[in-house]
Amino acid sequence: MTERQALVVDDHPTNRLLAIALLKKLGWTVAEAESGELALQLAERLAPRLVLLDISMPGLSGEETCSRLRQLPGGAQMRIIAYTAHAFQEERERFLAAGFDDILVKPINRQHLAELVNGA
Amino acid sequence: MKLPSFLSGIRGKLIAIFVLIKVVPLVLLAWFAWHAAQQLGEDVSVKAGGMADAMLDSIKTVGKTVTDDSIRALDLRSREAIEALTTDAAKEIASFLYDRDRDIRLAAGIELSDASFRHFLGERNRPIYQHGAWHLAEDGKSWVPEKAIERTAKVTRPVLPDNARDFHSRPPEYFGEAEQRPLFVEMTYIDLAGQEKIKVTSGNLTEKGLKNVVDRSNTFVKAETYFAELKKLKPGEIYVSDVIGAYVPTQFIGPYLPATLEKAGKPFQPTESAYAGTENPVGKRFRGIVRWAMPVVKDGRISGYVTLALDHDHIRQFSDRLMPTEERYTPIADAIKGNYAFLWDYKSRSISHPRDYFIVGYDPQSGLPATPWLDEELYAEWQQSGKPSHEFLAATPSFREQNLNKKPAKALAKAGTVGLDCRYLNFSPQCDGWNALTEHGGSGSFVIFFSGLWKLTTAAAIPYYTGQYGKTPQGFGFVTIGANVDEFHKAATETAGKINTLLAEKDNSFKSQRGAMLDDIQRSLTSTAIGLWGSTALMVLLVIGIAVWMANLLTGRITRMISGIRAFQQGDRQHRLDAGSADEMGELARSFNQMADSVEESFTRLEEAKEKAEEASRLKSAFLATVSHELRTPLNGILGFAELLNAELSDPAQKEYASIIQGSGEHLLKLVSEILDLAKIEAGEMTLNPIDLPLADFIRETTANHRSSAQAKGIQLTEEVAGGLPATLQVDPTRLRQLLNNLLSNAIKFTVRGSVTLSVERFEQQIAFAVRDTGPGIAPEHQQAVFEKFKQLEHFLTREHGGTGLGLAIVRQLAEHMGGHVRLESTLGIGSTFTIYLPLENKHD
Questions:
Q1: Which residues pair with B477 in a beta bridge?
Q2: Does A5 touch chain B if contact means CB atoms closer than 8 Å?
Q3: Which residue has the higher pLDDT, A89 or B137?
Q4: Which of B117, B191, B524, B606 has the fewest Cβ atoms nearer than 10 Å?
Q5: B697-727 pLDDT tens trace
Q6: What percent of chain A has pLDDT over 70?
Q7: By residue range, what is the domain housing residue A61?
Q8: Whole-number Å distance between alpha carbons of A10 and A53
């Protein structure tokens, strides 16, 4: 597990960019992926301590990607946070059930992100 | 009354009704039939018994009547025969005596000489019949003849058929062994001085020497006093004496046998005691005479008297052989049987009797009459008188109170002097009876119970009226015949006996027949009962079977219908009832099927509508989620980078612009959130996740979130949690927080100075969250409008206050969605109080 290594997974470039910018400001080394498949490859290689994972993506969905990440070596210790615009309560519950450690609902703000990742 | 469970169903009720209307009459009918049969049986038994009894009764009555009539007829016939026999015997005796009158007349005219007299007597003989020799039987218990006499009727020619009916023959009559005996034992000629001048005797009864008969002691048994009577005779007149003889006493009355004599304490000397027929056939005989006399007239003057002494035995022959039975005659009388004849003289003294000791006589020593048999009473009187008996009796009235209750004098019986003189035989009332019948010359009979036997006793006067005998119509005396009545009607009593035997047999036969009939009836009744009750039971079973079958048939359809309905009810909506039959059940089934059709159709429609609605709802939810997602995604970039920009820019103006972008983005975000919330509530998509929320902590936290903004405006924010509230509240915390946040932020937003208070208290079964401010207040006419979407009061610019115009709409809708409601109280210029009421009820569930 690489200390302070984070992985941002989002098919939306703007949102990926925002998360990377904020994480870097918080002192993280950030890798990025635009799909679940790429994220799995990167994660296998980088073994990130933190993953911000979008849900609605072409290809592998965030939930599927999360469960596969968990199956990687050290996947169980990975802090995987849903980085999603799905804000409804029932959706949040579904993500927690799918193996996410926490949820970061878009739009995000710096303080909220900092509180969440600090736990990692 | 609770019916048994099997009766509660229609089936049970049907069966019960069936059984009631069919079985009860059936059982009643059977019972009636049985009762009638039994009654009939009883009636038949009783009537049969009654008939049998009545029949027996009538047979008995008829039998008794016939027997009684027969007895009576036989008795009357026997009486007539015996009476005839009696009168015939009396007539014969009289005739015999009159013959002796002729003899004396002849005798008075013959030559007075020994030879002439001898010749006279020698010419006059008559047979005396006597039994042969008898001796004591070897066992000493009876006397038996040495030679048995057999008498059999002899018929040597064939009986002609015409005569065969009741052809009855008798052997020649047997009176005994005949002995020719002279009629007279003595013939004398007596001179006027009483001196016997000529005397011829036969036998040795009288003395042969010539004597003077004036002196009694010179007469027969010193008892004759006839000479005095002779002197009174006129020529042609006849004198006839009494029967005179020596009394023969007995040592015993009854069968003279060694045993009886020993018992009486006397020596067994039968030849010394009086003759008594079969009772003592070897006894001493009474011998007596009756003397006829007539004056002998010579030259017109009475010169003397001729007498003839008749041997008394010849008179006895008329009675001794007589039998009032079909035997007719007997050589020896059997006194004990009660069938015998006897003779009584004109003074009612016994002059002939089967028992010689009963014949009165004289004491040969004194020539005085022997004492006759008296009753105890008279005997006692005589003993007291101290006189000789003949003197005493001469002064005693005759036939004094004769009756059967008087007792014979035992002393006389013991002494053996028991001659029967009816005048003093007061224990024998028949003496009086005989005299009643004969004293006027007549005859007759009566029945008397005497010596242990019912006896017919007849009496007939002996119409012989010569000499002294002509003084009364009774004449010489009278004949009596005693006969055992039972023997007359023996045939009838035998018939009666036979009838009674027959009746007894019939009675038994009737009884057994009746018993058999009763048994038959009982058997018949039993078989009837078995048949009746058996068939009734069979029919009852059949009826119950039919009832069950019909009930099953009827209720089977109902139960099929019920199970069909139940199947339908439980979801098998394709299920339809069999509506094949045309009856009410079919109609019911058809109605149900129609209803089921429409219900099924409704269900189908409902399901379709539901599916559509669900589809719509699903689409709506998906749409809302998508809208939310699609709006938030760009907002993430806008807000995130605006915040970044604001932090990194140093030019205040640029910083301001970045802030504006950020503020507008946040407003948009809020708007999006609230629109989506409202849309969710309205679409019914808002799901609540109630938990046990610690109330006090929650209120404190919620208030704390607004404290900074309140302080920024210089407004006092307070919280008041009342007592009596539960520690936790069952509620969705997100939504409750949303409600309170909306109200608190509004209150702080619109209050310029003063305070905002959040108070929580119980209101009935609800919890009331009240947010009170000291803001401008809301006019009554606007109080409804504030809860409408995008209907912020005109004078509050949305932009100025940063509101979305949806906050209170959400509050109202969400409160109602949570089962509660919102109330607004407001006064212009003073402030407003928004109160949310939520139900408390489910907090403990």
A1: B345, B462
A2: no
A3: B137
A4: B606
A5: 899 999 998 999 899 989 999 999 888 888 8
A6: 97
A7: 2-118
A8: 7
For residue A30, the distance in angstroms to the closest alpha carbon of chain B comes to 17
pLDDT at B251 over 70: yes
How distant is the Cα of A117 from the closest Cα of chain B, in angstroms?
16
pLDDT cut 90: percent of chain B above it: 42
CA distance B619 to chain A (A): 15
Query: Would you state the pLDDT for residue B214?
Result: 94
Helix-, strand-, coil-residue percentages of chain A, each rounded to 5: 45, 25, 30
CA gap B14, B554 in Å, rounded: 9
The closest of B373, B269, B278 to B320, measured between CA atoms, is B278
CB of B644 within 8 Å of a chain A CB? The answer is yes
Q: What is the reported pLDDT for B593? A: 86
For tokens 């005299």, the residue is: B435
Contact B475, B96 (CB under 8 A): no
Give the number of residues written for chain B: 845
pLDDT tens-place string over residues B207-250: 889 999 999 999 999 999 999 999 999 999 999 999 999 999 99
pLDDT at A2: 66
Give one word for B819, left, alpha or beta, with left for phi > 0 and alpha for psi -120 to 50: left
Q: Which residues of B touch A62 (CB under 8 A)?
A: none
Q: Which residue in chain A has the smallest CA separation from B641?
A: A18
Tell me the pLDDT tens digit for each residue of A37-55. 999 999 999 889 999 999 9
Ordered DSSP codes for B282-293: TSBPP-EEEEEE
What is the pTM for the complete model shown? 0.53
Q: Which residue of B has its CA nearest to A19?
A: B640
Question: Looking at the DSSP assignment, which residues form a beta bridge with residue B297?
Answer: B302
- How far does CA A46 lie from the centroid of its chain? 14
- Residue A22: closest C-alpha in chain B: B644
pLDDT at B844: 39
B630 has a chain A CB within 8 A of its CB: yes
Task: Tell me what the mean pLDDT of segment B547-568 comes to.
Answer: 81
Q: How many domains in chain A?
A: 1
Give the domains, in start order, of chain B with CATH numbers: 108-136+170-248+285-311 (3.30.450.20), 601-687 (1.10.287), 688-843 (3.30.565.10)
> From the CB of residue B612, how many other CB atoms can be counted at a distance below 10 Å?
10
Q: Do B342 and B261 meet the contact criterion of CB atoms below 8 Å apart?
A: no
Task: Write down the pLDDT at residue B802.
Answer: 63
B646 and A CB contact within 8 Å: no
Tokens 């929580």 map to which residue?
A: B760
The number of angstroms, rounded, from the C-alpha of B437 to the middle of its chain's C-alpha atoms is: 61
How large is the angle between the packed helices A89-98 and A62-71, nearest 10 degrees?
Answer: 20
Q: Which positions 654-683 of B are in contact with A (Cβ < 8 Å)?
A: 665, 669, 673, 676, 680
Residue B820: φ, ψ to 5°: -120, -155
CATH code of the domain in which A57 resides: 3.40.50.2300
Q: What is the ipTM of this complex?
A: 0.90
pLDDT at res. B797:
43
- Decide if A111 touches B, using CB distance below 8 A: no
Convert the pLDDT of each residue in B292-336 to its tens digit: 999 999 988 999 999 999 999 999 999 988 888 888 888 898 877
Region A16-43: mean pLDDT is: 92
User: Distance between CA B464 and CA B103 in Å, rounded?
Assistant: 15
> CA B491, B492, B493, B495 torsion: positive or negative?
positive
Distance from CA of A105 to the nearest CA of B (A): 9
Which chain A residues contact residue B669 at CB under 8 A?
107
Could you tell me if B734 lies within 8 Å of chain A, comparing CB atoms? yes
Q: Which two tokens stand for residue B18?
A: 């069936």
Q: Is the dihedral of CA B396, B398, B404, B409 positive or negative?
A: positive
Question: Where do the H-state alpha helices sit in A9-88?
Answer: 13-25, 36-46, 62-71
Q: Out of B628, B637, B665, name the one closest to residue A88 (CB).
A: B628
